[in-house]
Design a protein that fits this description.
Blueprint lengths: L1 E3 L5 E3 L11 H33 L4
Antiparallel strand pairs: 1-2
């Protein structure tokens, strides 16, 4: 999965999903949970970056 960052560079993320002896539904559920966790982390990182930028600019 590629996620385009604000500086126009690409960041590539890979999630590992165990597929052996699992139904397609279980595999998809596991992949979705990992992707959700990844996006939660990316959102948190961006919010922290935005907070640091707004503190540094003197605006409150």
């Amino acid at each position: 999965m590629a996620v385009r960052s604000l500086d126009e560079s690409n960041r590539l993320f890979a999630v590992e999903v165990d597929m052996e002896n699992r139904s397609p539904e279980e595999i998809a559920r596991d992949a979705v949970m990992q992707i959700n966790a990844l996006f939660d982390r990316l959102i948190k990182e961006q919010q922290e970056k935005d907070d640091q930028n707004s503190e540094g600019s003197g605006k409150e």
